């Protein structure tokens, strides 16, 4: 159909239109169909804007073009205690609605408090959150973060007594704050981008959370210094401090900034001729494509097909998970000269792109890059948007491919920093809950939660550099295809009994 009005735009529309709409507009490109395409893209753009951090939504990069900048401010890391117990309590009845209602009630309230307090939710890490309070030269960002943390802890009271089939359980939260400088970067390829933070400030924030207590806000030394004299604090070891919540309700208040709803301006169709509609579709594509590149391809497809309902159906699944740690890059910024920073971002972009390609080749999903005390963590899973009978084997083969990619990666050579990029990997197989979590019409994300993710993460933590550890369920799935060495048992956090573990090696 050489005279089709969407001929030039068709390659860009393939991945962004639902199958039925794509077919109907191609066989019948009348104004009514073109309007449907425009309205779908407008809805999808709004959804994608809610899936990425505020900075990315407001100033999306050119897909595939790496960019980075030093930023200063206060970082908050939160961790939810008791969620695994909640998941286990509903594992038998697979009560997706009950679990999702609790999750979304929790996250919606926390995200609203963060937004009203001047914060920017950067990333979900399972049930944890990383939040940024930017320095703006006018407000004390650490004071804003402390006040947000106190509000969040007060809001947790409604999750103290949750009824489940296994009895009443309680959810709690730890919050850690640190103030410092870090690099924010967009890395990847035009097909898949990722927003990452680099620098010691990110790791220091996680240390602050780990040093704290459930129900409290814990400050690093730098954060404590920034709010000295503003709050009463209990000093802990190693310079950490817990904020004492002795503020009156009126003194703390509900927000520090006027609440706003983050929305990109929607387009309006005044001229409904075919030529005008095609022009508006192209303009909408120009703002949608950069945001779409920040989602895994299969997750993007899921959002595209469910955009009309604006809801991704939750589901319980049995699947394999890879949890890996990538070290050697995250701590480099502190040692680099300014002219070396683009080289570091290029190196990070390269290894991320290759790892993501290995995952997509096997039909998996690279969920995201998160931040750890010892580098960057990457969650990878299989069987969420399209299950295969051999997903366990695919996961194991992908882990081996990633291990080889990292081993073959060039070392980082800078004037004051020389380091090899290294990785360690944990593999697990078990039940998980896949759902869109967050605010139903605001900041949210498609996420995977469950004990299988925790087990893979703890196996990764127990592994040595360059090693792949897996638990017995996955070992049994691949026993006939790939060699595994029995390493006995180890004690993993949250497990009552010792866990049998194996190391994975390439086939001869």
Topology readout:
Elements: H1 10-13, H2 19-27, H3 31-51, H4 54-58, E1 67-81, H5 83-89, H6 96-116, E2 120-125, E3 128-134, H7 141-155, E4 162-164, E5 167-169, E6 172-188, E7 193-198, H8 200-211, E8 217-219, H9 221-226, E9 233-235, E10 241-243, H10 249-252, H11 274-292, H12 297-306, E11 315-327, H13 341-361, E12 364-372, E13 375-382, H14 391-407, E14 412-413, E15 418-419, E16 422-438, E17 444-449, H15 451-462, E18 468-471, H16 472-478, E19 484-490, E20 499-504
Parallel strand pairs: 6-8, 16-18
Antiparallel strand pairs: 1-3, 1-6, 2-3, 4-5, 6-7, 8-10, 9-10, 11-13, 11-16, 12-13, 14-15, 16-17, 18-20, 19-20
Helix pairs in contact: 2-3, 3-11, 6-7, 13-14
InterPro entries: A/G_cyclase, Nucleotide_cyclase
Protein name: Guanylate cyclase domain-containing protein
Pfam families: Guanylate_cyc
How does this structure look, described?
- The N and C termini lie far apart (52 Å).
- The chain has 16 helices and 20 strands.
- The longest helix has 21 residues, at 31-51.
- Helix 2 runs antiparallel to helix 3, helix 3 (31-51) runs parallel beside helix 11 (274-292) and helix 6 runs antiparallel to helix 7 (141-155).
- Strand 6 and strand 7 (193-198) form a beta hairpin.
- The chain has helices spanning 10-13, 19-27, 31-51, 54-58, 83-89, 96-116, 141-155, 200-211, 221-226, 249-252, 274-292, 297-306, 341-361, 391-407, 451-462, 472-478; strands spanning 67-81, 120-125, 128-134, 162-164, 167-169, 172-188, 193-198, 217-219, 233-235, 241-243, 315-327, 364-372, 375-382, 412-413, 418-419, 422-438, 444-449, 468-471, 484-490, 499-504.
- The strands form 4 sheets. Strands 1, 2, 3, 6, 7, 8, 9 and 10 form an 8-stranded mixed sheet that branches. Strands 11, 12, 13, 16, 17, 18, 19 and 20 form an 8-stranded mixed sheet that branches. Strands 4-5 form a two-stranded antiparallel sheet.
- The mean pLDDT is 90.
- The chain has 3 domains: 10-51 and 264-294, no CATH class; 65-233, 2-Layer Sandwich (Alpha-Beta Plaits), CATH 3.30.70; 299-504, Nucleotide cyclase, GGDEF domain (Alpha-Beta Plaits).
- The protein is α+β, with helices and mostly antiparallel strands.
């Amino acid at each position: 159909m050489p005279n089709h009005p969407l001929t030039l735009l068709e390659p860009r529309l393939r991945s962004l239109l639902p199958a039925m709409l794509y077919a109907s507009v191609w066989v019948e490109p009348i104004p009514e169909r073109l309007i449907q395409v425009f309205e779908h893209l407008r809805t999808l753009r709004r959804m994608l804007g809610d899936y990425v951090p505020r900075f990315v939504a407001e100033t999306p990069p050119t897909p595939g073009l790496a960019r980075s900048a030093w930023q200063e401010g206060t970082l908050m890391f939160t961790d939810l205690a008791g969620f695994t117990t909640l998941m286990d309590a509903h594992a038998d009845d697979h009560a997706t609605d009950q679990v999702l209602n609790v999750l979304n009630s929790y996250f919606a309230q926390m995200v609203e408090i963060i937004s009203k307090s001047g914060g920017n939710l950067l990333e979900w890490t399972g049930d944890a959150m990383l939040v940024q309070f930017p320095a703006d030269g006018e407000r004390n960002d650490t004071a804003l973060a402390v006040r947000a943390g106190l509000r969040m802890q007060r809001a947790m009271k409604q999750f103290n007594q949750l009824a489940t089939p296994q009895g009443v359980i309680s959810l709690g939260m730890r919050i850690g704050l640190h103030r410092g400088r870090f690099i924010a970067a967009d890395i990847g390829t035009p097909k898949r981008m990722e927003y990452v933070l680099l620098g010691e400030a990110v790791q220091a924030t996680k240390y602050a959370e780990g040093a704290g207590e459930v129900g409290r806000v814990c400050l690093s030394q730098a954060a404590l210094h920034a709010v000295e004299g503003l709050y009463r604090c209990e000093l802990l070891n190693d310079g950490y401090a817990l904020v004492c919540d002795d503020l009156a309700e009126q003194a703390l208040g509900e927000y520090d900034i006027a609440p706003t709803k983050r929305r990109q301006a929607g387009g309006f169709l005044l001229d409904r001729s075919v030529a005008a509609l095609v022009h508006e579709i192209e303009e909408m594509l120009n703002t949608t494509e950069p945001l779409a590149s920040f989602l895994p391809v299969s997750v993007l497809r899921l959002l595209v097909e469910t955009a009309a309902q604006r809801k991704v159906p939750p589901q319980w699944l049995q699947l394999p998970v890879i949890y890996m740690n990538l070290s050697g890059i995250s701590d480099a910024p502190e040692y680099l000269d300014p002219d070396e920073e683009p080289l570091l971002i290029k190196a990070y972009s390269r290894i991320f792109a290759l790892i993501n390609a290995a995952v997509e080749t096997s039909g998996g999903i690279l969920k995201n890059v998160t931040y750890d005390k010892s580098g960057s963590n990457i969650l990878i899973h299989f069987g969420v948007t399209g299950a295969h009978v051999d997903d366990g084997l695919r996961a194991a083969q992908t882990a081996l491919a990633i291990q080889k990619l990292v081993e073959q990666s060039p070392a980082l050579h800078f004037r004051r920093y020389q380091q090899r990029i290294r990785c360690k990997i944990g593999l697990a197989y078990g039940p998980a809950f896949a759902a869109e979590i967050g605010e139903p019409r605001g900041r949210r994300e498609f996420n995977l939660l469950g004990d299988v993710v925790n087990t893979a993460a703890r196996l990764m933590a127990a592994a040595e550099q360059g090693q792949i550890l897996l638990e017995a369920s996955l070992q049994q799935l691949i026993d006939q295809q790939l060699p595994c060495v029995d390493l006995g048992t180890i004690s993993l956090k949250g497990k009552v009994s010792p866990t049998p573990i194996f190391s994975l090696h390439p086939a001869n």
